[in-house]
């Protein structure tokens, strides 16, 4: 599903040049659950952003479903992203002014799904995430765990092929964290590819494979048994 | 999707109520001010445009060139309009219009109708005023024909049909017939009359032969040109026309006339001939102020929206991650801005309707009777609201939609430097406009105060002027009033300072010993007039009962007349010869110049003579104590001696100051809109200051922990904004100086633009800004630092 080769990303300021990704190459197969680990500043999030088509690499190749996307412009990236990729963030990133239902509905609006179908789909997902009873609440009225469940619901509502999770349990206590990890595992078992950045060895153990990074490069890969 | 946008827009508005309030309030106040100014400007521009033939109607005016000066006259000689019609087939009709304050009586009902007009029979052919009853072609044909407005007719005839009824006119009580009832004239006409009396009454009864007079000037004259006639071509034929009819007379009198045509539609705003005219300059000034206020309100909108950008950044990021592309987001933010403008539009409608009566009062005329029933106006306002929404929303939409999702979601968002510079630039523009308006307001008020307090050269206090017209018993009235307690002295005259007066063809001996032909302003007075008003003699003496010749053969000049005749000192003029309106005699005295007109005009050469027959006004100097009682006793005497006329009087000081009514109105309007502009600017500043304070909460907390005092914090938060206000002052000062210098140039006597005006405006602007910012800064400064650190 994902094939990146010699990907390079360098952040430059007037005085400093920081190499975030240093000719990195990774493959992710469809249906895999991959965890990316490494110390802060090793380039995990940069890699995730590029994989999520939120950012573009400086050099290198990025094949997404055998299509070269490294040089896609903003519009093409957005198009590909909204049909294929879901995101889960550490800080949930829900829109405060929208209710639970409306937050989850958002990706469907941008993919042009009709109102009746949107309602049906959102309710299905909320039900699945066991948060239906909170559908009319606003994010600030929910606990952290509930907020992250909403975020996961939003990430999956479009049936994406790939979910990118950036430290999804980072702001949660262990109980809520485990719940979210279970959700992700379930999704993976249903066929969704998941790439997750995490600091937590515990969470990483839910994955099939751990890619460890240091200074913008992969240093080790562990296959989980 | 649209629903989602609106939902977000309304929830955002509600969630950030203070910002929303500031934004909507600023726009509402700005749009209301603009709407009211628009109504005012539209009203001013509408004068005399409603006449169906307005494009073909011209006012005939004259410039009269004497050996010493050129006198602009509001109308040509009485003979001119009729002869123009006779000579030029391209002229379809003419009417002379002579406004007068006429007395009308019907039984016991009597009124001085201040808006009476003598008019020729073609009046209704030329102007579009509607006759409800009567024949427009003949209503003003016969002598002693009267056409009344519906509401005036009601005063005299109640519900009875006035047509054909008799009413007594003028102090002589001549019977006249009601030949027409017209719809009340609208306010937006320069030819405003409540009662019209046929001009033939004058030309065939009161002043026979006046139709053939070529050196006696009528107030106004209007001609209707046939379709396709070019006014300029006609104007070029006038010199030959005048030469043919009055060339000889002009040479004899040494007064050479040039006739000019003024478009009816332009008389009110563009002509300088006449009172109660509008000013295109004021229309421009208020239009510019309206534009400024709108710009200030838009600037607030842009500033507050972009300042809040960081708060919306997360939402932008999420939406982009969820699949939104930039145009979609730009549309969303533009939509929000239009929603805000739409709310402001609704509030503007309400606020304008609420303020309209007060604004009508402030403007001194009914510029509009209502907002809601004016469909095109509401549509225009809605359109303006949407355009403002688009214009003010474009930049914030552009900025907000450009955020990179990963940056904003990671919280790495920082308000761009560009945005800051733009915001600063906008604040500077806002305050520059506001400060310029403050300077303008101070100068307008300084000039008003200068005009009110300038030494006029006579005593206008405690002088009551009773209108006696030419009632025969006015002498008896004067005697009776003189005997009343609390009356110091009284005098009869044809004019008082601030009132109208004739200009007289005169020949006066100049410094070379020649009889110089000139036009002198003329006051007819009696013996007691000069002492009553306390005019100071510069040379010679005042009129005296001791000299029998004073009543017909004596003239007093003012210093301006003496200078015009070439004398180096007033003494030199004493004993010199004069000829004026059939009287000959000598100059017996020179009075010091006094302002007998408003301070807009310079003091002109004035002649003063005695002529009891021409007196119509009784000036009464009263004691300050018990004024009401004194007036009551004067009224009692008046009603006993002149029972046929309503008692009408005024205080001279108020009467004189009424000449500044237009300037006062201008000043009041200017002040009000300047205050509004400042208010909106302050709203914006308040919003920005509170936002800046919010953004620096953590910094304030740390500084306080490190030992910063409340004043340190206020200083920290205020100084950035104060810098902007100070820069704006340096931009505003020269611009305001330039425009106000031009404004003052229209006054013959004017205050100087002193440095203190700028200092005061600068201090005021800074003070207003400091108070606005300090409210926010103080709150942040006194907050518990631990709390503010925790907030972060």
UniProtKB/TrEMBL annotation, chain A:
Domain of life: Bacteria
InterPro entries the UniProt entry points to: AAA+_ATPase, ABC_transporter-like_ATP-bd, ABC_transporter-like_CS, ABC_transpr_LolD-like, MacB-like_ATP-bd, P-loop_NTPase
Domain ABC transporter: 2-225
Keyword Metal-binding attached: no
Annotated Gene Ontology cellular component terms: membrane protein complex; plasma membrane
A molecular function (GO) term: ATP hydrolysis activity
Keyword Transport: yes
Family stated for the protein in its record: Belongs to the ABC transporter superfamily. Macrolide exporter (TC 3.A.1.122) family.
Name of the protein this chain belongs to: Phosphonate ABC transporter ATP-binding protein
Species the sequence originates in: Niastella populi
Classification lineage: Bacteria, Pseudomonadati, Bacteroidota, Chitinophagia, Chitinophagales
TrEMBL record, chain B:
UniProt xrefs under InterPro entries: ABC3_permease_C, MacB_PCD, Macrolide_Exporter_MacB
Keyword match Transmembrane helix: yes
Main localization category: membrane
Origin: domain of life: Bacteria
Positions of the MacB-like periplasmic core domain: 20-238, 432-634
Pfam families given in the database record: FtsX (PF02687), MacB_PCD (PF12704)
Keywords, ordered alphabetically: Cell cycle, Cell division, Cell membrane, Membrane, Transmembrane, Transmembrane helix
Gene Ontology biological process: cell division
Transmembrane segments: 21-41, 283-304, 333-357, 377-400, 421-445, 669-694, 721-741, 753-778
Ranges for domain ABC3 transporter permease C-terminal: 288-403, 673-782
Any one GO molecular function term: transmembrane transporter activity
Subcellular location: Cell membrane
Membrane topology, as annotated: Multi-pass membrane protein
Gene Ontology CC: one annotated term: plasma membrane
PANTHER family the record matches: ABC-TYPE MACROLIDE FAMILY EXPORT SYSTEM PERMEASE COMPONENT 2, MEMBRANE COMPONENT OF TRANSPORTER-RELATED
Protein name: Cell division protein FtsX
Phylogenetic lineage: Bacteria, Pseudomonadati, Bacteroidota, Chitinophagia, Chitinophagales
């Amino acid at each position: 599903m994902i094939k990146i080769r010699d990907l390079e990303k360098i952040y430059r300021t007037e005085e400093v040049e920081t190499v975030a990704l240093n000719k990195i190459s990774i493959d992710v197969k469809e249906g895999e659950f991959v965890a990316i680990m490494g110390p802060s500043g090793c380039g995990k999030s940069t890699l995730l952003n590029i994989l999520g088509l939120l950012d573009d690499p400086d050099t290198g190749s990025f094949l997404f479903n055998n299509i070269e996307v490294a040089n896609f412009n903003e519009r093409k990236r957005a198009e590909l992203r909204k049909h294929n990729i879901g995101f889960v963030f550490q800080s949930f990133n829900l829109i405060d002014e929208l209710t639970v239902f409306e937050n989850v509905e958002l990706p469907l609006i941008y993919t042009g799904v009709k109102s009746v179908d949107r309602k049906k789909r959102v309710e299905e997902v909320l039900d699945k995430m066991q948060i239906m009873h909170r559908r009319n609440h606003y994010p600030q009225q929910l606990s952290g765990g509930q907020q992250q469940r909403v975020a996961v619901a939003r990430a999956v509502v479009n049936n994406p092929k790939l979910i990118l999770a950036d430290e999804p349990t980072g702001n949660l206590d262990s109980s809520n964290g485990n719940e979210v990890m279970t959700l992700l595992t379930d999704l993976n078992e249903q066929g969704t590819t998941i790439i997750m950045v995490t600091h937590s060895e515990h969470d990483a153990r839910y994955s099939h494979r751990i890619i460890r990074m240091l200074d913008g490069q992969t240093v080790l890969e562990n296959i989980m048994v | 999707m649209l629903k989602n946008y609106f939902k977000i827009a309304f929830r955002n508005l509600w969630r950030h109520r203070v910002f929303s309030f500031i934004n909507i309030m600023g726009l509402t106040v700005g749009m209301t001010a603009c709407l009211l100014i628009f109504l005012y400007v539209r009203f001013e521009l509408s004068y005399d445009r409603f006449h169906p033939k307005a494009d073909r109607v011209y006012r005939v005016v004259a410039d009269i060139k004497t050996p010493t000066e050129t006198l602009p006259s509001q109308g040509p000689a009485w003979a001119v309009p009729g002869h123009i019609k006779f000579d030029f087939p391209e002229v379809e009709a003419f009417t002379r219009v002579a406004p007068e304050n006429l007395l009308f009586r019907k039984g016991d009902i009597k009124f001085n109708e201040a808006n009476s007009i003598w008019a020729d029979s073609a009046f209704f052919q030329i102007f579009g005023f509607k006759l409800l009853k009567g024949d427009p072609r003949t209503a003003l044909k016969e002598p002693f024909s009267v056409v009344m407005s519906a509401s005036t007719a009601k005063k005299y005839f109640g519900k009875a049909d006035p047509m054909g009824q008799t009413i007594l006119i003028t102090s002589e009580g001549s019977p006249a017939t009601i030949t027409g009832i017209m719809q009340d004239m609208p306010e937006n006409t320069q030819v405003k009359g409540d009662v019209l009396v046929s001009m033939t009454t004058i030309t065939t009864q009161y002043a026979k032969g006046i139709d053939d007079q070529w050196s006696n000037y009528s107030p106004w004259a209007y001609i209707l040109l046939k379709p396709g006639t070019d006014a300029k071509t006609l104007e070029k034929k006038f010199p030959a026309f005048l030469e043919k009819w009055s060339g000889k007379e002009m040479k004899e009198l040494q007064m050479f006339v040039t006739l000019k045509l003024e478009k009816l539609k332009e008389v009110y705003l563009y002509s300088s001939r006449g009172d109660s005219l509008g000013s295109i300059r004021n229309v421009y000034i208020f239009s510019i102020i309206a534009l400024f206020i709108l710009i200030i309100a838009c600037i607030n909108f842009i500033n507050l929206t972009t300042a809040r950008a960081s708060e919306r950044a997360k939402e932008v990021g999420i939406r982009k991650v969820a699949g939104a592309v930039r145009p979609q987001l730009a549309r969303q933010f533009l939509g929000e801005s239009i929603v805000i403008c739409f709310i402001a539009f609704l509030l503007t409608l309400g606020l304008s309707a609420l303020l309209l009566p007060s604004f009508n009062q402030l403007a001194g005329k009914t510029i509009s009777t209502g907002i809601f029933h004016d469909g095109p106006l509401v549509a225009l306002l809605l359109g303006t609201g949407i355009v403002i929404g688009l214009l003010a929303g474009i930049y914030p939409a552009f900025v907000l939609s450009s955020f990179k999702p990963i940056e904003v979601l990671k919280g790495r968002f920082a308000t761009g430097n560009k945005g800051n510079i733009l915001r600063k630039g906008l604040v500077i523009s806002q305050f520059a406009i506001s400060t310029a308006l403050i300077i303008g307001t101070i100068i307008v008020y300084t000039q008003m105060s200068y005009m009110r307090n300038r030494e006029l050269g006579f005593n206008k206090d405690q002088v009551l002027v009773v209108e006696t017209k030419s009632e025969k018993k006015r002498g008896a009235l004067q005697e009776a009033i003189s005997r009343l307690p609390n009356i110091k002295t009284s005098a009869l005259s044809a004019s008082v300072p601030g009132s109208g007066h004739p200009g007289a063809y005169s020949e006066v001996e100049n410094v070379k010993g020649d009889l110089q032909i000139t036009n002198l302003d003329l006051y007819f007075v009696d013996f007691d007039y000069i002492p009553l008003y306390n005019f100071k003699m510069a040379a010679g003496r005042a009129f005296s009962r001791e000299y029998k010749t004073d009543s017909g053969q004596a003239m007093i000049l003012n210093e301006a007349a003496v200078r015009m005749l070439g004398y180096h000192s007033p003494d030199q003029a004493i004993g010199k010869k004069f000829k004026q309106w059939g009287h000959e005699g000598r100059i017996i005295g020179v009075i010091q110049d006094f302002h007998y007109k408003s301070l807009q005009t310079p003091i002109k050469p004035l002649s003063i003579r005695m002529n009891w027959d021409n007196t119509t006004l009784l000036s009464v100097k009263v004691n300050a104590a018990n004024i009401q009682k004194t007036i009551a006793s004067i009224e009692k005497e008046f009603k006993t001696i002149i029972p046929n006329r309503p008692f009408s009087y005024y205080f001279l000081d108020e009467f004189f100051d009424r000449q500044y009514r237009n300037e006062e109105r201008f000043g009041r309007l200017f002040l009000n809109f300047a205050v509004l502009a400042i208010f909106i600017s302050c709203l914006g500043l308040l919003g920005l200051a509170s936002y800046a304070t919010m953004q620096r909460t953590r910094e304030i907390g740390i500084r306080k922990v490190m030992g910063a005092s409340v004043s340190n914090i206020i200083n920290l938060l205020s100084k950035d904004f104060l810098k902007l206000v100070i820069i704006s002052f340096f931009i505003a000062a020269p611009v305001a100086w330039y425009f106000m210098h031009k404004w003052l140039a229209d006054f013959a006597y004017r205050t100087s633009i002193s440095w203190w005006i700028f200092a005061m405006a600068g201090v005021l602007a800074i003070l207003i800004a400091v108070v606005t910012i300090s409210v926010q800064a103080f709150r942040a400064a006194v907050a518990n630092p631990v709390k503010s650190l925790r907030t972060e």
